[in-house]
Design brief:
Distance between the termini: 26 Å
Shape: elongated
Strand content: 25-35%
Amino acid sequence: MSSVPDGKKLVRSPSGLRMVPENGAFNSPFSMDEPQWVPDKECPRCMQCDTKFDFIRRKHHCRRCGRCFCDKCCSKKVALPRMCFVDPVRQCPECSLVSQKEVEFYDKQLKVLLGGGTFVVTLGTSDKSETMTCRLSNNHRYLFLDGESHFEVELSRISSMQILTDGTSPGGGTSRASGMLLHYKPMGSQDAQQLQMEVAEDKKVASLWLAAMHKAAKLLHEARDQ
């Protein structure tokens, strides 16, 4: 185990090298723990094709689900950023498809969220609104809202999230995201607060940000249910 800059460290696990925060309390809310591997004695056969393991047909564990497979059924190595692996790792066909979709989120949508969008923000039932830039923090743990004032929403304290739409887009396509309604508990409070955001000046950028946040919400839900 060795320390590296920016509060992260390299950790070697049975599955491979991982780059994780120095303090586990600062893990990204999108991250997932490594699974418990199915014990070798409990999997005499491949859990995909039912081939019996022997000295020639060795067993391999999928790094995402922890189940046992033969080399033919678990030969693909795919990036797994949600578990912080440095290099692509061995995964079964089912898991590799899920991971490939998540890689797209990390490569594209996450950059959109970090870049931010401009919204008209209303807190609670107030009749006062403020134009603010909303972006995801670099550690993925907070939404930063900046305008004349500044405040933060911790993703782990969001209890519900609804993407608002403006109906169908020109040409009869899918509806475009026009805003977001959040319910969250501020730090030190058990009472839920409502936050409403509506797209402001650059509607295209803001709509893309909301679409990315919609995908992020799905990952957050999965991570909480792990």
